[in-house]
Each structure stands twice: as C-alpha cells, then as structure tokens.
Amino acid sequence: VSEPNLSAPSLSAQLQPSSAKGSRVQNPIRIALLGFGTVASSVARILIESKPEGLELTHVYSRSLARRKAEWVPSSVTWTDHVDVVLTSPDVDVIVELAGGLDPAGNWVRRALEAGKSVVTANKKLISYHGVELEKLAAAKGGHLKYGAAVAGGIPVIPGLEAGLAGDRIKRIEGILNGTCNFMLSKMEDGAEYANVLAEAQKLGYAEADPTEDVGGFDARAKLSILMRLAMRLTVNPDAIVPHSITEIQAVDFSYARELGCTIRQIARAECTDANVAATVGPMLVGLRSPLAWSRGTENMVVLTGHYGGDVVFSGHGAGGHPTAVAVVSDLLALAHGSRRVVRSSAPTALSAEFEVPHYIRFLVNDKPGIIADITVALASEGINIRAIVQKPGYPQKALAFVMTVEPCKSSALKRALETLNGKDYLIAPPLDLQILE
Amino acid sequence: VSEPNLSAPSLSAQLQPSSAKGSRVQNPIRIALLGFGTVASSVARILIESKPEGLELTHVYSRSLARRKAEWVPSSVTWTDHVDVVLTSPDVDVIVELAGGLDPAGNWVRRALEAGKSVVTANKKLISYHGVELEKLAAAKGGHLKYGAAVAGGIPVIPGLEAGLAGDRIKRIEGILNGTCNFMLSKMEDGAEYANVLAEAQKLGYAEADPTEDVGGFDARAKLSILMRLAMRLTVNPDAIVPHSITEIQAVDFSYARELGCTIRQIARAECTDANVAATVGPMLVGLRSPLAWSRGTENMVVLTGHYGGDVVFSGHGAGGHPTAVAVVSDLLALAHGSRRVVRSSAPTALSAEFEVPHYIRFLVNDKPGIIADITVALASEGINIRAIVQKPGYPQKALAFVMTVEPCKSSALKRALETLNGKDYLIAPPLDLQILE
Questions:
Q1: Where are the strands (E) in B205-309, listed by range?
Q2: B142 contacts A341? CB cut-off 8 A
Q3: Residue B437 in contact with residue B305, Cβ under 8 Å?
Q4: pLDDT band at A296, cuts 50/70/90?
C-alpha cells in the first residue's frame, strides 16, 4: 500500500479567511433537480420545508411533467421536460442528478460539469465506474462533484470517512450496503423462505422485478468500490470485484448458522495488507454478537478498521427517500458554505479475492458411507483443518444437508479442494462455501 | 425550534475553483503540538509515520522536556518548554492544543487565534464553555478552529454531523460519551462491584484518582452540550445540564435491569421538540436489543435521530491516544486541503430536564406491610401508571430491594410523587429513579 499522497491547495488558499466571518449568503445557490422520483421529491420537500439558508430550488426536470408536477412546490420553481433547459441554463448553479444508472445520467452529469456547474448525485453506479474521471472534469472546469448519498444513503459514511478518518489508514471495510438483501436475509433468519421474501420485497418496492442487481451483489460491489477509493485510496473497477449471489442461501443454512452462533448477511468486504488487496461481495456468516448481525430490515451498516483508530461502526437507513435526501441536502449545504472535500489521490491496484478466513461449507448429499472421509481427504490435500462437522437430525437421507467449518485458510486453497469433489455422485448440489467473519 | 438559518459565504466564494485541480501543496502547514502526552505523541507518530502530504510537524511544546523528548521525532522538530515560542512564532501555522482543561489551555488557544493562527483541539471542556466565542475570534482573525476530537475521540461524529447530517433537523441525541463510565458499568453488568471496578479503572488509567468528572457526568455533559450546538443548533451552557452520578448504581440494579430485559449505561440525552428542549446525563436503563447496550468496555456510541433521516448510529473507540489522534490529524488535513466547516449559527435556549419516558424506581426498604400501597398512592396522586412491580426473592427483610417501573410520565411529576415519600420510616435510602430508554 502506498504512502498517503495528498492533493492540496497552496498555503494561501488553505488559510484564507473563514467562511464563518458572519457573511450571510447574498445569492443562494440555484438548484435544479434531474428527476422527481422518491428521493428527488424528498429533496424538494426538505428544501421547501426547512429552507436551509443558501439553497434555492429553482428548476425541476421530469420526463412525466403532467403526472409529477407537485402542488406543494412553490410556483417560483420552473418545471420542464427538456433536460437541456436546466443543463444549459445560466440560472442554475448546481445540478442534482437522481435519475440513476449510467445512461443518460452520465451524459447529463458530464454536460453539467463541462458547463462549469457543480453536481450532487446519489448515483453509485456512475461514481463507481466514472468517479475519478468526473472528479477530474469537475476540477478542470471549476465545479464540484459531491456524492455523499451514493453509499449507505442517509448514513454519513462518506463524509465521516473524508472528514473524520482521513488521518487514518483504513485496512478493512465490512459493510451491509444493500438494504434489499438485508431485508430478505433478516426475514429468512426469522424463518421465511427465499421465494416468499423476494415476493414481499418486490411488493414493498424494495426489490425490482428483476432482482439480480441487488441479490447478485452488483449494487453492493459498486458501493464497495467507492468506499475502497475513499478509504483505501485504491481505484478499483467494480467489475473486478467477484460477487456471490444470495440466491444459494436456504433455510437450512440459517438453521446451521444459528447452531454455530451466527446468522447470514450479504457483506461487502475489502482488505488491504502489504501483500494483497482483496475484495468480494456475498452472503457470509457473521457472529450473533457482531455489530453486523444487529442490522436488520433495510438498514445498512459499515465497519471501517483503521491502522490507528481501530473499528468505527456507522449504521442507519441506507436508502429511502428522506434519508437519502438528507445526504443530498447536506452535500448542497457543503457547496453553499464553500466547504471543500479533502480530495485524496487514489492509485489503481490489482485486486484478488484471496482472504484468509474460516469458512462454512454446506453439503447437500444423497447419503452413503464414506462421504465425510472423501471430503476430509480433499480438504487435507490443501492443508485445510476442519473446525467442526455439524449434522442436524431430521433431514431425509436422499437430500441430506450437513455442514463443515474449517479453520482460516486461503480462499483459493479451499476452492481447489472443493473442485476435487466435482462430479462426485453423492453431491446433489455443488457445496456452498461462505466466509465466516470473526 | 427555529428554522435553519445558515451562515454562508458569497456566491463567488462558494463556487470558486476546486482545490482538487491537481495543485499539490508547495508549503505544507507547519504544526506545533502543545503538550506531549498520550494523544499528542500519537499525533506526532502518525505525522511522522504516515507523512500525510501538506502536514509538517515543526514544534513541540512540553513542560517536561528532559523527560519527554522522543528519539523517534526527527531532529528538524524544535522542542521547547516556553509556550510563547510557539504561540508567537511566525514559523507556526497551526497550534494543536492537547493539554486539556480551561486554564492555561484556553489562554493559549485565544492567543494563537489572536495571532491569526488556526487551532485544532480535543478540549471538550474549553469548546463546551467557550466554543462560540472562540469560533467568532477565529473568524475575525482569519484562522480556523477545529475540534473533531472533542467528542467521541476517534469516532467521526462531529465531522459526520457537520458534513453529512447538516441537511436534517436532529431532534434527539442519545450517547455513551464517557468511556470510563461505560467500562465500569459493563464490568458491573458482568457481576463486579462498583468499588472494585473503580479501582481497576484507576489502575488501567481510565479513571482519575478523583473520578468525579467521569462518574458524576460532568465530562459527558460537556460533550453533550457540544453535540447539541452542532446537531440542534442550540447554544447550551454545560452547567445547565443536570448530571446524575453512576455511584448510586448497585449490583441489585443490574439484577433487576436484566429481569426487565435491560442493562444500565451512562447516557447523555437531549431532546428537542416544538415545546421543550431537555437534556440530562446519568445512568439509564437501555433494552438489551438497543444499540446502546452493545457498547461495552471503553467504547463510545452516539445515536442521532433526525426529523427526516431517522436514527443514525456511530460507534467505536471514543478515547485513547491513537483513535483521538486520528481525529486530530483528520482536522489538520481538512485545514491543509482548504476544507471549510459548514458553520451553522446556533441560538441560546432555555433548558429543562423534563422528559416523558418510562422510569425504573428501585426502593430499598425495611419491609413491613403497606409499603406498596403507600407508594402506589403517591404515584397515583400524580396520575402515574405502574407498569410492573418486581421483587426478586433472597433479599433480607431489613434491607429489601424491589423495583417498580412506570409508564411514560413527566420527570417532574415523578419527582413530586417520590418527594411525598420523603421521611417515610421504611425507606433505608432515597428511591433510585432511572429513565428507561425504549
């Protein structure tokens, strides 16, 4: 890991008179919302209800004006269904992009920054793939790019990290970054089946018709790559982070997890040592006494481990209109107050999926003598020590689920060991292998 | 509660070119440490080991030079036992004040700010009593005052609050802000007696020879007043917050608390409604499923409840050399990077200790018939409903401890009800009354 290597303004800029000198804003910054969905309308509501000084909502772009135009928004606000009107207007200082996705949102953000405007966005996908480039563009054109809402919505992880943990070197990130998966897994912990929980999540609007982005770990890995850049100062392409889906998790796994004093959560995890940078996203076992097990429902939680400061835990509502809108409005206030981000350079890095942790391996077999012997030989061939073998009674012999846990071993070694079992006639399904966080 | 009413710079200052424009620092900010105790030497260590760009340790003031001068500090650093040397030196940009207390630290900070220097401090006492005045002085002289380490040490509550929750209106603060009390109470939860735990805390350096500042709630109330100013934008004199000591808590209280599904923590609590601003510090019952019960040992935890964003939880190491030093170095980096605080005005407020919550009341009596009747009449006279009466077997009749819990009622009403019991011959000690947090 490289030494801290910070960009900073010149001394004269650093120690210029404080903005607290009593100068009230004469001209508030003029804000245009791109989109008027849940988060954007919450942003509008806070701006209108709370009237934070220095902020003025002036434009709303929405493709479906007739349906969306809200009566409680003052008539001074200009509504338009032409995005060009706000992107090019000299009467707009800051664009708030809440449409999400790479396209057309990325194009809008680029055009706004090109025009010298500042941008506040909650778009984790855009920032995870193009954050470095967009920050450079903003800096070159004299604008600012802020995205405090892109990770963990209403929980100030990004501001806390940038402003309060900049003095540390973060060596580990463990996060519950996807509220949909956390909702589903904590419901399954209480006994519900995957299919029913997914249907409920869809009904409640937590999950999309195609839930792959959430359950497959793609959403969480985008957020993890943003945190890695800010916390570890490593530029990581989210595609390089291997995601594991939660769809493999069954009721039997919660039952065995509990037997082991654990539950199961979708965890986004990155670790940075002198020798290795590793990152992954997927379902993992977490001890019931770990903070990560406290997080239930759609909550998010992030545990950052610093070289100097140890563990810091952030938790709260990671999504939802109002919490996410708080993060957006906070970013707008920072812009209005001339508060600058502590921008720290990041460097590209090679990424592995190599962790050295204990594992939970669940086998589903058509029982016959010799299976345990077979598996233990495979594990021993890679020098992997077994910690426990747990087989609860009551499963049918033709579809018998049992679990082995192993002492800390390299992910790659375990993978090789399990591959030697490929094609064994007793395996009804490939073994499910989950990291155990201790 | 007043509307947000923000100080902000003019538009031209707000949207000036970003500090991220690639300009590396030519002249790092020159830092003088006042003091070389645990936190200050950790700050020096981070500055020397991590070499954050833009920061240079140039001076150390220490009263006991001969004893303290550290070999691992480069010879380029000037050591002095004359504080004037650093306060007046044109070669020092930022003073890091880690001596603590009001005097002489306050004088040093004032003189540094008067000289146009910036100050980073972890001094909660100074900031709680004089923060508003010192911030005005800093602004008037063109310097900056930062104190991210003053509350909850290594946990970025202050930066998270200022940068990430500025867009919300915080209506409730519940915090474990004193690590010493948390260490002692979590040891007592495990069965230890107060006197033994205090001795252990003193031996470990967590508690002073006179522990009043910690156990009496004075340290926590200073921190609470700082959080109230930043989160609720209310200027509160810490002396106006009534502290309750943890010394009244006995083993029997943990036993009864557990019976009620709770444990006991020292909580700093403030609530801000349209009608009332209330704050207090003292031991309280917290549900075992509440985040506040998870915090053990010297950890700190803060739960902020926003009007829009709901609950946000921060936890981690609230004290200790390295974690606190991380907060100090982060403040220094913010100064070096030209990052300005989002300074929001605060207004003085009248403060009450009036909460409307359920209560735990523990009686210690010389048992005789009619006591419960007597107490219930007293409570009924104030319209207070009893929730539960718990009397565990095994206590001697002449010193019988039992507990009543009551439904949410005003603190003042309960106080009046209990006062009517003053002088009752069966009372061995005044009833112990604790808030129950739900």
A1: 234-235, 242-243, 262-272, 277-287, 299-306
A2: no
A3: no
A4: confident
Omega of the bond prior to B238 within 30 degrees of 0, cis?
no
Report chain A residues whose CB lies below 8 A from the CB of B112.
none
Q: What is the distance between the alpha carbons of residues A175 and A263, in angstroms, rounded to a whole number?
A: 15
Task: Check residue B66 and give its pLDDT.
Answer: 65
Exposed / middle / buried, residue B247 (Cβ in 10 Å: 0-12, 13-18, 19+):
middle
B412 three-state secondary structure? helix
User: Which amino acid appears at position B229 of this protein?
Assistant: R
From residue A158, alpha-carbon distances to A36, A60, A147, B144, B232 in Å are: 24, 26, 8, 23, 22
Percent of chain A with pLDDT over 70: 93
d(CA B342, CA B159) in angstroms, rounded, equals 10
Q: List CB contacts (< 8 A) between A132 and chain B.
A: none
CB pairs under 8 A between A and B: 354
- Residue B195 and residue B111: Cα distance in Å, rounded? 42
Distance, in Å, from the CA atom of B265 to the CA atom of B297, rounded to the nearest integer, reads 11
Interface of B with A in 3-42 (CB under 8 A): 3-11, 13-27, 29, 42
Instruction: Report pTM.
Output: 0.92
Consecutive H or E run containing A227: helix A218-227
pLDDT reported for residue B312: 96
Residue of B21, B167, B310 lying closest to A139 (CB–CB)? B21
> A160, A153, A181: which is closest to A268 by C-alpha?
A181
Report which of A431, A354, A416 is spatially closest to residue A379, judged by C-alpha positions. Answer: A416
- Report how far residue A278's alpha carbon sits from residue A292's, in angstroms, rounded to the nearest whole number: 20
Known catalytic membership, residue A223: yes
Q: What is the pLDDT of residue A416?
A: 96
Q: Is A233 left (phi over 0), alpha (psi -120 to 50) or beta?
A: left
Whether the per-residue pLDDT at B6 is higher than 50: the answer is no
CA distance A28 to chain B (A): 7
Q: Given the residues A223, A368, A398, A424, select the one marked as catalytic.
A: A223
Tell me the pLDDT tens digit for each residue of B233-284: 999 999 999 999 999 999 999 999 999 999 999 999 999 998 899 999 999 9
Binned at pLDDT 50, 70 and 90, residue A390 comes out as very high
> Is pLDDT of A162 > 70?
yes
> Residues 6 or more apart from B272 whose CB is under 8 A from it?
B1, B170, B171, B172, B232, B234
